[in-house]
Amino acid sequence: MQRVAARFAAQGFATHLGLRLAQAEPGHCVIEAPFGEHLTQHTGYFHAGLLTTLADNACGFAALSLMPEGQEVLSVEFKLSFMRPATGMLARATGRVLKPGKTLTFCQADVHVVQESGEAVLCATMLATMMGVAP
Amino acid sequence: MQRVAARFAAQGFATHLGLRLAQAEPGHCVIEAPFGEHLTQHTGYFHAGLLTTLADNACGFAALSLMPEGQEVLSVEFKLSFMRPATGMLARATGRVLKPGKTLTFCQADVHVVQESGEAVLCATMLATMMGVAP
Amino acid sequence: MQRVAARFAAQGFATHLGLRLAQAEPGHCVIEAPFGEHLTQHTGYFHAGLLTTLADNACGFAALSLMPEGQEVLSVEFKLSFMRPATGMLARATGRVLKPGKTLTFCQADVHVVQESGEAVLCATMLATMMGVAP
Amino acid sequence: MQRVAARFAAQGFATHLGLRLAQAEPGHCVIEAPFGEHLTQHTGYFHAGLLTTLADNACGFAALSLMPEGQEVLSVEFKLSFMRPATGMLARATGRVLKPGKTLTFCQADVHVVQESGEAVLCATMLATMMGVAP
After folding, report:
1. Is the ipTM of this complex over 0.85?
2. Do A40 and B8 touch (CB under 8 A)?
3. pLDDT band at B1 (very low <50, low <70, confident <90, very high)
């Protein structure tokens, strides 16, 4: 999973936000961000744009992990449902491949927010379509 | 539209990313981000998470502009289609209310990327559901 | 779950298509349609519109089952990913509530198609937002 | 646009529902269904599954109209927002191509319901991803 780690690290946006690649296995990927004021929306929760970035990364790199060497992954489209206010110490997106394919890979990511108690609360979920492209 | 400007500015995430509120009228909102390495994905384009953040802001504040004073706006869900690689000097999301409502407001945002030539290329579009909540 | 059965049966569309309510428990609902030429798209598979109708029913009635007596359920929005061609003897949507709420209920439905061998193949998945309304 | 008419007519589902291909031009397609009890959900409106079928057809055939001869069109994914109760004499989906492509075509369809007064009310909108495949 060195390839996933390398492509993850090549994202200026992920670095700027302080995202962490917590886990990467074939068809599976976990991305995290600890809470900070710089990640909040106007009422103090994690911003929907940040949760989306976590989930997009988790889906995209889960998809990339099953693609032939040398391919890059691009997001074709995604949809998120925001089920609960995302408040807590750490946001974590867990992405998995639902169906790999030669052209398109379908993925889902659940976004949990970890509370002080350690409990992980499901706050959002994403369905995504990823595409493998030759560089 | 002072309320929109105030709520926009209250987002730590928007400040951290350098987003600009370019326009705010009833049912309409434009948010921009000039290109920078800190906004890119692994192949150098604007990151899907950044484009989503712009579109989410444009939809959310277009919705808020039609809500009763004192309400806050939350993102219930959204979906984006990424039609073209988002490469250029400036990304701009233009949000509009499709249907306001007492509980839910339906919105759409188009995301264009402005080229060196000045041409604005449509790169993504979002359909979003926003909810007004009492603080 | 008599209420779910009654509301399911009140749909002219479900009757016209020959849908069956296969299971209804709190927060969970299964809807089926046996294959027929009248349910196909132009290449002979189950039509995306039919798979959507199954999934919309499965999500909607899973949501209704957790709502206060007397409320009706309406579809606010949904998104489906079609992962594989839907070909086989029977299409079955299994809906579950991800997060119930006073106003909005978030649901997901998986659509499987049962093969002659008995194998159930995942062909589509839906994320949906449902709303409870007073009649 | 004979090809669109032929592929539209090849759908058992469209025939069973009484759908009409009202217009077909390059990158543009209109599909209609007059109201009937057999198209309703449990409160008497046009069923979300029927509105989806109209919109899916309008997007799919708008996409097909721009594809090379001999290709078929398949729905990869779509999302609909249901903005208003769909009640009236006729439901009409107007689909257009937002961005054609060699592999994927991005489309949008608006669904209006025509009232007795003749007014057409926007009730739903779809964003869709369509794929061209060799037969």
Report:
1. yes
2. no
3. confident
